[in-house]
Amino acid sequence: LKHTPRNPCAHLSSRTTINLPFAKMADLVQPTKPGTGYWLWLSDNRAAITKELGTGKAPVVAKHAGEKWKALPAAEKKPYEDKAAQAKKEYDSKMAEFLAAGGTKNKRKMKEPKDGKRGAKKARAEARKASGMPKKPPSAYFQFMKENQEAIRKEVGAGKPASAVGALGGQKWKAMTAAQKKPYEDKVAELKAEYLKALEEWKNTGGDDEDQDQDEDGDEEEQ
User: Which ranges constitute the DSSP H helices of the chain?
Assistant: First the structure.
C-alpha cells in the first residue's frame, strides 16, 4: 500500500487562524500623523476661504489662509493648538507601539495639487510659513553666496543669466581654503543652533517637521 503523509494541520477547521510572524507584520499599519494647529483651523475654514476668494487654487488659498491665521488672536488659536498638541501626544504613543512591534517608519509626501509642481511647491512653502515652522538655515555655501552675490554678479557682467552667477560662485567656493570658509561655517552653525531651539519649541506646541520639503535653500546641494 502507498503511504500518504499525514497533514499536520488536518485537525484544524477552515476557520482556524494560524498566527505566523509574517502575517503579524502584514497587519501593522503606520499611525496617521495629525495636523498642526494651523491645519486643523484650515480644515474648519477652507470652504469659507475658498468661497471668499472665489477660487480653490492651492497657492492662493494657502497664502490667504496664512495671513488670516497670523492675524488671529492667541486666544482663538489656542483651541486648535491644544487639540493639535494632544493629537501629537497620542500619535507619538501609537508610533512608539508601532515601531516596538517591528514596524518601519516611512515619511509620506504631501499630495501634489492639480496646479502642478510649481504651485505645489509654493503651497507647501506658504503652509510651512503659516504654521509658524522655523525656516531651516542655509548651508555655508549659500551663506557665502548671500554675502557675496552682488560682487560676483558684477564680475560676471550685466545681461548674464543667474546660472552664470551661481556657476562662478560655486567655482570660487570650491577654490577657497578651509580657513576662508570657516567664518561662513561658524555663522551657519550659530544659525542652526537657533533654528533647532526654535524648532523644538514649535514642535512642543503641536508642530511636526516630517513634512518639511527638501526644496528649501538650506537643503540644496552646493555648487
Answer: 21-26, 37-53, 58-71, 74-100, 117-131, 140-156, 162-175, 178-204
Q: Which residue has the higher pLDDT, 18 or 70?
A: 70
Cβ atoms of 92 and 84 closer than 8 Å: no
pTM of the model: 0.45
Report whether 134 contacts 199 (CB < 8 A).
yes
- CA gap 147, 135 in Å, rounded: 19
Spell out where 84-155 has E strands: none
- CA-closest candidate to residue 64, choices 53, 77, 51, 76: 53
C-alpha dihedral (177, 179, 185, 187), degrees to nearest 10: -140
**What backbone torsions phi and psi does residue 214 show, to the nearest 5 degrees?**
-90, 20
CA distance 115 to 124: 12
Place of cell 533654528: 195
Question: What are the pLDDT digits (tens) for 148-188?
Answer: 999 999 998 888 888 888 999 999 999 999 999 999 999 99
CA distances from 39 to 18, 76, 132, 203 (A): 42, 14, 11, 14
List, for residues 134-150, the tens digit of each pLDDT value.
888 889 999 999 999 99
